[in-house]
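Usage example:
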Amino acid sequence: MERKWWKEAVVYEIYPRSFMDSNGDGIGDLQGIISKLDYIRDLGADVIWLCPVYKSPNYDNGYDISDYEDIMAEFGTMSDFEELLTKAHEKGLRIIMDLVVNHTSIEHPWFIENRKSKDNPYRDYYIWRDPVDGHEPNQLESVFEGPAWEYDETADSYYLHLYAKQQPDLNWENPKVKEAVFQLMERWFDRGIDGFRMDVINQISKDYELFDQYVPGKDDLGRTISNGPKAHVYLQEMNERVLSKYDVMTVGETGSVTTEDAKKYTGFDRHELNMLFSFEHMSLDKGDMSRLEVIRVPLGQLRAILSKWQNELHGIAWNSLFYENHDRPRLVSKYGDDTTPFYLEKSAKMLAVLMYMMEGTPYIYQGQEIGMKNPYYQSMEDYRDIHTINRYNLWKDQFDLPTLLHFFGKRSRDNARSPMQWDDTENAGFTTGKPWIKVADSYKEINVKQALADENSIYHFYQKLLKTRKQYDVLLYGKYELILENDPNIYAYYRKLDDETVLVICNYNKEEIAMPDVDLSHAKLILSNYEDQSDTLRAYEARVYFLNKQRS
Ligand code: GLC
Ligand code: CA
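Running the assembly step on the lines above writes:
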């Protein structure tokens, strides 16, 4: 196994709008991030993934970019960005940026130009179709609900948008688009950044035949719009032209991928990307959608999926280990138990062990390390997310308000976007002004100040866990081996490398159960979420043992 810095690194994701506001306008910003760099480094992170900070009209909070070479005014200036990069590097932190090149904003100059007329030189930068019988060219839907085609009067035609109508898709078949993207990537690398997280990168190549055949309610939208015929061609070109020239890391956001796809996108010998985000384990909380039901992620399914990714990629490609991001609810509210402070703490720590003792690069989303839970907003007025609002409008006549509030309280993207909880003062120390989105009521109990003061906090547990990972090569590179594969309560596995073995045992549930029958002679407990010992496995108990020269 070849050692690489990005395999041994820990990534901390920042959603700048909600992280830290330095000037009281209620919006997080770059100076806010600069003021918290020590906090991030002390946790044990090595890399910051910065969600988009480029100029944007913010229909989708920066995922709609109007200028790739400028910083969003609310976040600061290019000189703030340079200061952030320099200070981060001084502290040993690298920074990766979000590369959003499946689409731009409608306010990007390319789009403003291209919609002027059919013969505009930029027309080919985007994807246009003539109406069919006065309608959309086909039934393709957008990920954010409604048709994926938007009518434009100027030239009586429709443009494609897989996301919001303010996010028109770029036409990667046009060599000029590709070239422009490669050049902007180079310019960011030349400014000194350390890599990219690539937004919906497996959707840049379109399969127009599939689009034409798509039937709403019948076909899988994710599969229809992902992994198009030229996806690998484009990424190999990007790698050869740009990525291979720099020592940087790349992680693709790729919905609807199998492990076979992953081997193609990220295989060590493929020269495409270093890692990807698979979402196979991320929607297991979906219950019966006809009733908008949400369930706790079932152990059996989670275990089967994570084990498949661990086994299939070992030695061939590299996994990303994550539960949270800016699009997903909070881990403790989804896989864990946020019903009491005790269960919240124990389940948060257990879930950290369960995931981050595996093989792959850990990703931690802001607030995850202090056990932030969903804000459970009580009014639709509190929501800001475009997807949530679109869904609400679509569903409001079909479902009653309590059902909708319950569903969004569990699944809205805003669950990740409530402001970071720094302390127990007004607005959780996030801003001195009026926050752009409501602070969660839990901030009095759950906040960084409290976490730093308590040596048994979730924060300190993460710190210890991340340190432990780096102390043992077996935790970085060892092979995963699942045991007790059908146990209804326990998730347990070995990691093995040469003569080093680590054993991970997690009680996924709150009921106290018997310790499984495993050989613990020569075992040294190196991590546990309870301070005292027991012959049983207590509520959400997690243990990690180092088994010295174990012989089987
Ligand atoms: C990705 C981003 C999400 C964004 C979408 C469109 O899924 O993570 O926040 O809305 O792409 O860019
Ligand atoms: Ca601000």
